[in-house]
Design goal:
The chain is an alpha+beta fold. The chain is built from seven helices and ten strands.
Length: 182
């Protein structure tokens, strides 16, 4: 992702750049108990990822769904409004789909939802908007070494990765769990 690429470059002193945006995997709020956001009861338990990046993302999903408000920070402790008195449980992101039997709602990364046979278009109560400003930094990109942007091989690879055939494959294969952004 663009966010990871920037952090990777800082941490490793590398000079990788984005050659093209390819896809995004929207995070969604799932529940076996509730059928819509409006059904969520006071005091419901919400499981979210326990790593800082995905926790912030999960909280943004809840903010976008109108369930909470968060100040500038991006942690549970930064929640400023919680009108339904949601109770939060932080879990390893990969464990969230399995937690659905024991909690009311889980905000799950697209790849883990896909692995658990959850259909983002049918099963999610609410899904991130892949075109939101927040999601632009979450788009998966083709990362290349700086200076190779004009390489014919890179241009050819971008042409293939952003082709109508790849778009059709992504849309049919992943049914909304992975969304092309080219």
């Amino acid at each position: 992702t663009l966010a990871y690429l920037e952090e990777f470059n800082k941490k490793n002193g590398t000079h990788l750049v984005s050659a093209s945006e390819i896809h995004v995997e929207p995070m969604g709020a799932y529940s076996y108990k509730y059928k819509s956001i409006d059904d969520i009861e006071d005091g419901a338990t919400v499981a979210i990822p326990n790593d800082p990046s995905n926790e912030a993302r999960a909280l943004n999903v809840l903010v976008s769904a109108g369930l909470t408000k968060v100040k500038d920070g991006e942690l549970i402790t930064d929640i400023t409004e919680n009108p339904k008195n949601l109770q939060f449980k932080e879990l390893e992101a990969a464990q969230l789909p399995r937690a659905l039997d024991d909690i009311d709602i889980a905000v799950i990364n697209g790849n883990y939802a896909l692995d658990a046979d959850l259909d983002v278009t049918k099963d999610a109560l609410f899904v991130e908007d892949e075109n939101s400003q927040e999601m632009k930094a979450r788009r998966n990109v083709l990362a290349i070494k700086e200076g190779n942007e004009s390489s014919e091989k890179i241009k050819d690879l971008i042409e293939v990765l952003t082709s109508d055939d790849v778009r059709t494959f992504i849309e049919k294969q992943y049914k909304g769990a992975v969304v092309p952004v080219f």
